[in-house]
Fold Protein SlyX homolog.
Amino acid sequence: MTESRLVDIETKLAYQEDSVYELTLALRSQEKRIEQLEATCKLLIERISDMASGAEAGAPADERPPHY
């Protein structure tokens, strides 16, 4: 193998290692964002469920009586 070919291969390897590192950082960031979105969705589902169960229970407590 010639010296220039070896340098070319080492250069390509260095770029690939850098690309893998950058992709790993991006993946970590996406995983964190997905966890945040899942937590938000879970909270919204709980709130909607609470609202639905409150509607089934009858009139809300702050509704005006019919004689007003």
User: Anything to note?
Assistant: Residues 1-50 form one domain. The mean pLDDT is 89. DSSP finds one helix and no strands in the chain. Helices lie at 3-57.
